[in-house]
Amino acid sequence: MYYAGYTEFGSSTSFKIGYMVIAYYIMHFMIPFTILLITTYQLIRSLNLANQKKAEITSAGSKPRDEITLSLVTVVIIFVACQITYPVSTTFIIFN
């Protein structure tokens, strides 16, 4: 069986850092994270505006909307916790 190995450049540390860590980090973490942050911010802002309008009309509390906001923030935190492991582990593997 034939095995195609890395070229000299593909084996270099600069390639591993540039492609395997930085490019992967940007494509699989930073872009989705930015989109997630923007949409979450817009959802929270919309919920707050709707909550203010509801408060003007009625005197009801805002408990369900606060729970939704907390859920949205929790989704962002879980996304970061799950996605950060690959770049960190890859960086650790490259330098060890």
Question: Any overview of this molecule?
Answer:
This protein has 96 residues and is mainly α. The mean pLDDT is 80.
Features:
96 residues, mainly alpha
Give the helices and strands, then pairings.
Layout: H1 8-11, H2 13-57, H3 63-83, H4 85-95
| Number of β-strand runs | 0
Can you give the mean pLDDT?
Answer: 80
Based on CA atoms alone, the radius of gyration comes out at 22 Å
Percentage of residues in helical conformation: over 70%
Largest sheet: none
Percent of residues in beta strands? under 5%
What's the helix-strand series? Answer: HHHH
Euclidean distance between termini CA atoms: 29 Å
Query: What shape does the CA trace take?
Result: rod-shaped
Structure at a glance:
The protein is mainly α and 96 residues long. Helices cover 84% and strands 0% of the residues.
